[in-house]
Amino acid sequence: MKSYKCILFDLDHTLWDYESNSEEALRELFDRYQLQQAGITSFNYFFEVFGRINTGLWDLYDRGLIDQSVIRTERFHKVFSAAGLDEYKLSLQFSGDYLSLLPRKKNLLPGAQDLLQYLRPRYPMGVVTNGFDEIQGTKLSSGGISHFFSTIVTSQRAGSKKPSVGIFMFALGELGFDPAEAIMIGDNLQTDIAGARAAGIDQVYFNPRQAAHDEKITLEIRTLNELRAVL
Ligand SMILES: [Mg+2]
Questions:
Q1: Structural domains in the chain, sorted by start
Q2: Who surrounds ion ligand 1 at CB < 5 A?
Q3: What is the 84 CA–ligand 1 centroid distance (Å)?
Q4: What is the H or E stretch that residue 128 is in?
Q5: 110: part of which helix (H) or strand (E)?
Q6: For 172-188, what is each residue's pLDDT tens digit?
Q7: Which tens digit of pLDDT belongs to each residue from 137-185?
C-alpha cells in the first residue's frame, strides 16, 4: 500500500462495538421494563426482532429515505408490535431510555484500543460518523478512545452525512490534508467505502463476517489487527 498522512475512522461497528453495546443496553431495559411479564416470550426473541427491524430502518436511513426522528419514534413501536406488545407510549419511553443508555456502554471491537494506540504517534486521526455530537461523543469517551483523535466529525456538525463527499472534505479540512493523503476505515460498503471513494480517498473495508460483494476496494480486512502490518 502507498503511504498515507492521515487516517479517518468510522465509529459504529468499526471501533465501538455497537452489537455488544446494544445487546447489553437492551437486556438491561428488557428487565427494567419487565417485558417478559408484559407478554414478550423471551429476551432472545425480542433481540432477534430488534435486529431485523433495526437493520431495516438504518438501511432506509442510509439511503436517505427516512430521517433519524423516525428511528427514534417508531423503532421500538415496531419492535414491540412485532413481538406481540402494542404499547406506543411505553415504546417511546423505552426508546428514550435506550438512546441515553446505549452510548454509555464501553465495549470496543477486538483490537481497536491496541490499533489506535499503535497509530496515534504515527498519524493524525479523525472520526467520521453519521450521528449526533452528543451521542457519538459519549460513545468515544465511554470507550476511552476520544484522546486518540484530532477531530471528531459527526454528520450533525458537518451538515452532511456519509456517503456524501461533503462530510469527508469537512474532516480533511479539519486535519489539513488532501484526499490523496488520507485513508478511510469503515464497515459499511455504501456510507464508508463508496463515500470515501467518491471523495478521492483510499478505503479499508472492515469486513469481519466476510460478506460477499463485488466492490473494488483499496484494502479489505477481517480483523483490525491486520492494519498494523500495512500502516
Ligand atoms: Mg459503521
A1: 6-17+108-229 (3.40.50.1000), 18-104 (1.10.150.240)
A2: 10, 12-14, 187-188
A3: 30
A4: strand 125-129
A5: none
A6: 999 999 999 999 999 99
A7: 999 999 999 999 999 999 999 999 999 999 999 999 999 999 999 999 9
